[in-house]
Write a structure and sequence with these properties.
This protein is mainly α. The protein folds into two domains: 181 residues, Growth Hormone, Chain: A; 242 residues, Growth Hormone, Chain: A. 76% of the residues lie in helices and 0% in strands. It contains 20 helices and no strands. Helix 3 runs antiparallel to helix 4, helix 5 packs across helix 16 and helix 11 packs across helix 12. The chain is globular and about 70 Å long.
């Protein structure tokens, strides 16, 4: 008779778990796509629904704000009610809201539908990651699964804007929401059959007070940081950041003192020190990615003069090698390379991407695409390894809270990247533009392009050339800052030395590489 494996040996996932992972990637792809799916649809929406300027901003922003504000709440709730149950609720809400959004007859209805989409997204993202943590108990297989999770999320953000351009060109704007429905129906049908339930067997009561405290911390911070690079340093944005930080301090105090916190402090104690380091370094990685995107998207459109759809298609090119980054990093760690070295190398590679951006001129399509691709590859290496480290360090029964905190850190990192690097670039731009230029041209490159349309040809050409040069100079300054930040993060990654490798050795996975088909 075959002998049973030791009780302490981790159970390897079978084809059922890998199939379940494929099912879980459906909501993740759509949730990440919805961040950018309105990119080309908004002109058609404006013509059809006639929203005010404020309503148009809310149509864009309400999804990301609700998503960010509820991540921690939904992660903690999933630990208590079950991540599969919450996943199914989120899929139903996401599908229903997509249908309402597609046929919205007013701006108010569309804003409300986008808010419900944010609620659904906030349940889906931490639920998928938490279920990956509980389904893949073998360290090596979990690393592979998280690499796939990271790649799908990055691909969704990149594909969202392109998909919206294609759909709007051939159908009507509501089609960008209807594409969500088949995937959500499939998820509702297959998840109960393939995905196991997972929750904390002794979660304690749900701390209701932590819900408004977490939202009061996240929303002002994200909003203030998001507006600073676009609108400049204004009292209301600085005050918003200050209010967010104040509530963040109150929220942390609440978590440390209440009997049943939303974010358990034990995540950061003992072995959880690796969790805290992973969350912090992952925030820096998100800072770098979103900070670079702030410049590269404008560079492709306003410096090189590409249309929005052309820019989105060109921006897909750097994502091609991303699919190899996470599997290569996972293979290196499983062969015994210390995770700290892999993460540090990822940060160094990403810094090299910023270095390429710092060398780009005003007519440098390929260097900018290469820089964006190198930066993205390095960041995916970092993100996949830090996510695996964080989830491996967190107790399985707290996977929802751990996932939500990791993803909230990514949201903060993205907003901070745009605020910090965007503000540096904008400051350099404004300093380089002559005082005689029209007021809008002195604020942004987009303002310069708009102002040039009202000027004689020769004057317009001079203004646009000057503005493009000023923007590129600002991008150089931001890229050099990003390089320094990433190199500092590479040094800090040394604190992770030895983290996570013992678990892999105990699992007998070092030196062995097997894909889903070999499970």
């Amino acid at each position: 008779m075959p002998t049973k494996p030791p009780a302490s040996a981790p159970l390897r996932a079978t084809r059922k778990e890998w199939t379940a992972l494929a099912v879980l990637m459906l909501p993740l792809l759509l949730v990440s796509m919805d961040v950018s799916v309105l990119y080309f649809a908004i002109p058609e929406i404006s013509a059809d629904l006639d929203p005010s300027g404020t309503q148009q901003l809310w149509i864009f922003d309400i999804y990301a704000f609700v998503l960010a504000g509820l991540l921690m709440t939904m992660g903690s709730l999933g630990d208590r009610v079950g991540h599969r149950r919450l996943l199914l609720f989120g899929a139903a809400a996401f599908g229903a809201a997509s249908l309402v959004a597609a046929y919205a007859g007013s701006a108010e209805t569309l804003i409300a539908a986008r808010a419900v989409l944010g609620v659904g997204g906030a349940t889906l993202m931490p639920s998928t990651m938490a279920l990956v943590r509980t389904m893949f108990r073998d360290a090596g297989q979990r690393a592979q699964a998280i690499g796939i999770w990271t790649g799908v999320m990055v691909a969704g953000i990149a594909l969202g804007s392109v998909l919206s351009g294609v759909l709007v060109e051939h159908f009507w704007w509501g089609s960008v929401f209807l594409v969500n429905l088949p995937a959500m129906v499939l998820l509702l049908l297959l998840a109960p059959l393939l995905v196991p339930e997972s929750k904390d067997p002794a979660p304690g009561r749900f701390d209701l007070l932590s819900v408004p405290l977490s939202m009061a911390a996240v929303l002002p911070l994200v909003w203030g940081l998001k507006e600073l690079p676009a609108e400049g340093v204004r009292v209301e944005y600085v005050a918003s950041v200050a209010v967010g930080l104040l509530f963040a301090a109150v929220f942390v105090h609440r978590q440390r003192t209440t009997a049943s916190p939303m974010i358990p402090p034990e995540l950061f104690r003992g072995r959880g020190r690796a969790f805290g380091a992973a969350v912090a370094l992952n925030l820096v990685s998100s800072l770098a990615v979103m900070g670079s995107a702030y410049f590269t998207t404008q560079y492709l459109q306003s410096v090189l003069g590409k249309s929005a759809l052309e820019a989105a298609l060109w921006a897909l090119l750097p994502s091609v090698p991303i699919g190899l980054a996470a599997p290569v990093a996972t293979a290196l760690v499983r062969r015994g390379v210390d995770r700290a070295h892999v993460v540090a190398t990822g940060f160094a590679v990403a810094a090299g991407g910023y270095g390429l951006l710092a060398l780009a001129g005003t007519d440098a399509l390929w260097p900018v695409l290469a820089g964006a691709g190198v930066l993205a590859c390095g960041s995916v290496v970092v993100g996949s390894q830090l996510t695996d480290l964080a989830l491996g360090a967190a107790p399985a029964e707290k996977a929802g809270s751990a996932s939500a905190l990791l993803e909230t850190g990514q949201e903060f990192g993205g907003a901070l990247g745009m605020a910090l690097l965007g503000s540096i670039g904008n400051a350099v731009y404004r300093d380089a533009i002559p005082g005689s230029a029209p007021a809008p041209a002195r604020e942004t490159l987009g303002g310069a392009v708009a102002s040039a349309r009202q000027l004689p040809d020769r004057t317009a050409d001079t203004l646009i050339a000057t503005a493009r040069e000023a923007f590129t100079t600002g991008m150089h300054a931001a890229a050099l800052t990003g390089t320094v930040i990433l190199l500092a993060a590479a040094v800090a990654a040394g604190a992770l030395r030895g983290a996570g490798t013992r678990e892999q050795r105990n699992a007998g996975q070092v030196g062995e590489i097997s894909g889903p088909s070999g499970a």
